[in-house]
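We examine the record.
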Amino acid sequence: MKKVIVYILFLTLAFPLWASHQPQFSTAGFFRLKDTGREVYSMNPAWRFHKGNLPETADATAKDFNDKDWQVVSLPHGIEYLPTEASGCMNYQGEVWYRKHFTPASSLNGKKLFLHFEAIMGKCKVWANGKMLAEHFGGYLPVIADLTEVIDWNGDNVITVWADNSNDPSYPPGKAQDVLDFTYFGGIYRDCWLIAHNPVHITDPNYENEIAGGGLFVAYDNVSDTSARVILKLQVRNEGKKAFSGLVDFEISEPDGNRVALLSEKLQVKAGKTATVGDKVVVKNPHLWSPESPYLYNLDVYIRDREGKVVDGYRRRIGIRSIEFKGAEGFWLNGKPYDKPLIGANRHQDYAVVGNAVANSAHWRDAKKLRDAGVKVIRNAHCPQDPAFMDACDELGLFVIDNTPGWQFWNDAPVFAQRVYSDIRNLVRRDRNHPSLWLWEPILNETWYPADFAKNTNDIVHAEYPYPYCYAGCDNGARGKEVFPVLFTHPATGDDDWAIKQPDPSKTYFTREWGDNVDDWNSHNSPSRVNRAWGEVPMLVQARHYADPPYKYTSYQALYQTGRQHVGGCLWHSFDHQRGYHPDPFYGGLMDVFRQPKYAYYMFMAQREPQPSDLIAETGPMVYIAHEMTPFSPNDVTVYSNCDEVKLTVFKNGKSYLYKKEKTASGMPSPVITFKDAYHFMDDKALSGKNKQNEVYMLAEGMMDGKVVATHKVAPARRPSRIILRIDNQGTELKANGSDFVTVVASVADKDGNVKRLNNYYIRFDIEGEGRILGGSNVMANPRPVLWGEAPILVQSTTRPGKIKIKARVLFEGSQMPLSGEIEWSSQADDIPLVYDEEELSALGQVQTESISLPSKSKAEKEIERLQKELNAFKLKEVEQQQTDFGEKR
């Protein structure tokens, strides 16, 4: 059996022209630099997996344990694939086992080798070649193991992981899943990295476990437009046999490579010891980070020996900014009062089909879609989220409220509080260098904990971050709130039951969750909770509720009517997500579990600034008609736009309506636009009966300063005639690393491409090439029902770059059914080498992924199919004429 580290050396294939920005993701807390002696490998591919307990006589930690009957999976792995309606505790809870075989390259002999799991759900243990190296409690923070002393350089090596996501009140969140408003899911659901570096190396802060120590610490002071003081601190460990003398260079550069600051510090580290070096450096005329301009510098750190040779180093992306919460004066950014409320959204990390096992690119696309909609702050509810998501927030301009795990649960046993404190420390150490970090939320959400616990959590945050611009927040109604500078509550213009009545001038207020509006906390009926498939009217009600409902409630409008002391709020919730204690998913998202938008998404988008900018995200003017022109569509036409004026034209020679935005001192930037009694199906019928279907449409034109700057046109969908496929990737490449995935959407459309929203087909997908469809018929992932005109699937890459072809057709075919659709693109080589056993990898997908293989059609067969459809259409003209004639005689 050949076990090797496989280096990806394939040539990159051409990518379509619509690729725009290719995000980069950190690995184990840093970005790699060439020629530093530090190397990174992905351990994600080809793990043997067993779900359930093992017999007492079976020792799965032993190197020679027979795991050949176990399934082969790749990380991130969430134990199982799930239906899109996966709430109500239908997911697996219990023990799981993983084993990975590999042989490291001989060139790594003499290096320090660390295994870095970004997260393993629940409690877990990690062994290498039978020796236990790590034990961890909690499912959201890194698990790190030193492999150096246990590696066998002459043969097979085996990493074994045991994990258990069952209910356990001894560590946070602690609450049983069947009474929890989210789901634990399970498995090794984030990336696993193998980090190799020299014995003299920059440490990992979570592994070192020192207060405000370990690794690289970057903070700021005296920040202004003219200068900023950057505080730099670095810990270096020497595991060599001799003392080390040299230098540490900190180089701060702009993205184009122009260096703006350099700090060199002498370094002396005794054998077997650590040393910490650092100082402050001034950057003149800095580009300051903000949501509107998320400027990132590159901070390159090098350790050099006496001869100047680099022995270790890496890059961090940093953003220079100051944040201050000034009580009655509100929030200040970069020394100036922030001039508008910060409107954001909460985010759970789960996705359709895969649960929490989400690829890095999908985390980035989540952030991108939210920033496109004008969102400026994300609350990581209720747990630390994937490092890739934090990286995305840095470059897209999203502030982050960083949460410790917890929700409505307290355990008086001392071990529980100690594990919460440990989570807080590890969270701060992991995320402290992110410019997107806005506010720490170290308390347990909606929990009646002791007052001294609240003080302890705040003290821990400041002990771990002993520099300026560090703030923590807490519920206004919680014990111990007096120690926090930021309190979570509703504005006086919103929900009276929760609103602050007498604000404390020393506190700043923020609404951590707004928008949900249930009848009771058992039934959970709410105008905010709308499945996208329910169609126009429910989605319009949801959007109106979030914007400016006809009753007093915290909404976009209410948050814009507050004073400076109340600085904004986060919608509950960005995306539909699964829950433990209710049979229904939470349907209140701006997007569904596949991240397909509802009308409320476009209402949010209309609140962004109309001026274009150089953000990576979409900016500028927009207009959107929230109307499908079906027989059941409302007579009133709703339009969302951030433009000064909107002209709506209904039908080619029909009526035109004009809306002019009123300039108001307060209130949401762009109120919902309603054109009363503008659409009637009978007008459509009248024109269609005269064979003038092409005259039936609505056109919205957004205008600024009298000029049209944005348009949106809709037309009713006619006879469903074809399936159209699109890749919902926000322009990102699909990386051929065996982990990356992308959403592919099949739409049922008429001959002009209008989506037939009212449709009940099932779509069957087939795949060829270097990809696999995640999930099968057992979870209704493939074939997939058409909901609101569309059927999305997830397509994952293999470890080989190359072409991928997806075919989609109606499950039950017939001569009158729509034409099948087809799309082809290519995955791209990843620049991180993959570690896997080639023989193990060959079994991947045989068990893990259920895929349907359909016979390919030749060009001649496709042409015959197309001509048959044309003949069918011709035949139908006769039927159509007969029905018209009959109707006239009536």
